Amino acid sequence: MLDSRAQHLLKTLIERYIADGQPVGSRVLSRQSGLELSPATIRNVMADLEEMGYLAQPHTSAGRIPTDKAYRFYVDSFPPPSSSRDKPGAPLPSRRSGIDGFMERTSSHLSHATRLTGLLLAPPLAQTVIARVDLMPLEEDRALAVVTTDAGWITVREIALDPGLGAEEVRAIGRQLTRRYRDQSVEDIVAMEGAPADPLDALHTRARGVTEQIVAMLHGRTLYVSGAINILDHPEFWDIEQTRALLRTFEEKERLADLMMSLSADAGVRVTIGEENPVDAMRECTLITSTYMYRDQVLGILGVVGPRRLPYPEVMSIVNATARQVTEALSRVRQDLYLPS
User: Fold this and answer.
1) Cβ contact 217:155 at 8 Å
2) C-alpha distances out from residue 115 to 227, 250, 268, 270, 329, Å
3) Nearest CA among 120, 110, 80, 89 for reference residue 225
4) How confident is the model at residue 207 (pLDDT cuts 50, 70, 90)?
5) Nearest residue to 260 (alpha-carbon basis) of 310, 222, 226
6) How many beta carbons lie within 10 A of that of residue 338, not counting itself?
7) Does residue 92 have a pLDDT over 70?
8) pLDDT, tens digit, 9 for 90 and up, residues 121-148
């Protein structure tokens, strides 16, 4: 257990290191702490903190830097995030852009507001009912699939056509899929398409690859990632191999989506620091997340990824406020949203 003096010095050191990224020595800490302590006394306290695992000493400096344990102490010392409204509410999603577009803009907002990488995991679609499927030809071997739910949720993906199909045939397949899937839940569609195919089913024999890609769209969860390039603004990520692994995690998304889903089990703001991250490529990162709600139930989760060295109170406040605004915006959507099963 840290006494009040050690706690004060540790917080001061962390805040100084967050501000300029330089290891903090006893003389700097003596000036910054506001305590009437000699550098020798402070060195003794720093030595104790290092022995307890709160500080580390880089090879090239006599100063100290905070460890994951120190950042965890620092974050846990904050009061719970306020639930009071301190910023304007998020705009109501329009029918034209759909909730899908609203979620994408929210991820971008997180990235711009924090200058980190914004993340938003959209709700699962398992119980959602499909309204229509549109296929828009792009090239002979590519098309744009647009799936709209009866709640106004729009999901857009580019799909491959193998073998290639003509433009009118692509549109016709979309109309056939609408007739087949309309008023069916995603869960029922996945089960239906997973059953053995009827050899007399013309849609299956002609466009099996298309239906498989549509089902994959419906079965998965959409993870929006915005501002991945922002990590290069932080010297912690100037190591090429480390950065490549992190960018690959952002690009592949599956493991990151699984991590976000596991974090959504607990409502509210959550901070995952360094080695607490189960994804190897994110062991040098901090992940700050918050769940958003619909009818008092957790519907999804959003947040940011950045270095350990970041302004925690400010970023936590932005993430918390954004989640609250998403919750408020969804509460004003007229159509019912289908809750996770």
Assistant:
1) yes
2) 8, 16, 22, 19, 24
3) 120
4) confident
5) 222
6) 22
7) no
8) 987 666 578 889 999 988 878 889 888 8
Find the mean pLDDT for residues 230-256. Answer: 88
The span from the CA of 208 to the CA of 197, in Å, is 9
Question: What does pTM read for this prediction?
Answer: 0.76
User: What stretch of H or E contains 70?
Assistant: helix 68-76
Report how far residue 243's alpha carbon sits from residue 281's, in angstroms, rounded to the nearest whole number: 8
The encoded tokens of residue 312 equal: 């925690």
Structure tokens at 97: 């852009």
| Contact between residue 68 and residue 50 where contact means Cβ atoms under 8 Å apart | no
With contact defined as beta carbons under 8 Å apart, do 288 and 315 qualify? yes
Q: Is 150 exposed, middle or buried (0-12, 13-18, 19+ CB in 10 A)?
A: middle
Instruction: For residues 104 and 240, give the distance between their C-alpha atoms in angstroms, rounded to a whole number.
Output: 28
Name the nearest CA neighbour of 303 among 321, 323, 282, 288: 288
Sheet holding 154-160, edge to edge: 130-139, 142-149, 154-160
With bands split at pLDDT 50, 70 and 90, how would you rate the model's confidence at 95? Answer: very low
CB of 69 within 8 A of CB of 30? no
In sequence order, which residues have a C-beta less than 8 Å from that of residue 216 and are 6 or more positions away? Answer: none
